[in-house]
Amino acid sequence: MFDPVTLKLQVEPLILSALKEDITSEDVSTNSVMPNSVQGTVDLICKEDGVICGLQVFERVFTLLDENVKVEFFANDGDEVSKGDLVGKLYGDIRVLLCGERTALNYLQRMSGIATYTRQVSALLEGSNTTLLDTRKTTPNNRIFEKYSVRVGGGKNHRYNLSDGVLLKDNHIGAAGGVKEAVKMAKEYAPFVRKIEVEVETFEMVKDAIEAGADIIMLDNMSHSEIKTAMEYINKRAEVEVSGNVTKENIAALTDLGVDYISSGALTHSAPILDLSLKNLHAI
Length: 284
Known about the structure:
Blueprint: H1 4-22, H2 28-33, E1 39-46, E2 50-51, H3 55-65, E3 70-73, E4 80-81, E5 86-93, H4 94-123, E6 131-133, H5 143-153, E7 166-168, H6 170-176, H7 179-189, E8 196-200, H8 203-212, E9 216-220, H9 224-234, E10 239-243, E11 261-263, H10 266-269, E12 276-283
Parallel strand pairs: 6-11, 7-8, 8-9, 9-10, 10-11
Antiparallel strand pairs: 1-5, 1-12, 2-4, 3-5
C-alpha cells in the first residue's frame, strides 16, 4: 500500500491525469442513460487465476470522482485469487461507478498482471540466494504503479530512476572512453553514498570493472559458461547482477550460478494483464 504522502504527491496526480484522458468534458454514454443521481452497487469479479494488486489505486479512482463512493474488498494486495472470485463491491452514485470503471480496471488489471507474472518468476528462484529485480523498462507515467506491483509479486526494485543510482551502461562507457575511465569519472562525480554499477559484455570488461573498483558488475547477455567464468574471476570482489532477455522461460537455468541479482525487464514490459471485470451493476 502507498503511504499517505506518496499517495497524495505522486499517485493521485497520475490517476487524475488518467481520468482526464478518458473524460475530456463529460461521459456522454452515462449521462444519456442516467441523467440524475441514483445510488447503486457493482461487483468486482476475477475472471482468471492470479495475484491481485492495486486495490488502493482502484478505489482511489472512484473516491477522487466522488468521496462518497464506498468500496468493500474481500482480498488484499498480494493475495492469490481464482476465476469467479468476488474481489470487492462498490457502492455509490451509478454515474460515478460508470465513469470510473475503465480507468480503475486498467490500473487494477495491469498491476495485478505484473504481480502475477513476478510471482511466477520469483518462484523459479526459490532455494537460491539470488534476488529478482525489475528495471526501468516501464510504461511512461506508470512506473510507480508497476514497480509497486513487482514488490507485491515478490520481486525487488532496481533503481527507481536516473537520479537514484549510478549505472554505467554501454553508451556511458563509450562516451567515457572505456570501463576504467567511466568508473573513475563516476567516483569523482557521484556522492560517496552511491554505489557504482557497471554493465559489461565481455570478460575483458569484467577485468576492467574489477580493477577500477566497481561495486556491482552487471553481466549483460552473457552465456551460462561466460557468466560462470566471470563469477570465478570476480570471486566476491563485487556484487554480481545478470541481465539481458531474462524471462519466465529461461531464468531457472541461471539459478546454479550463485549471482547476487537477476534483473528482468519482462516483469514490467511483457506481463499480461489479469482479467477482472465490474459486473451486476444495479440500483439500490
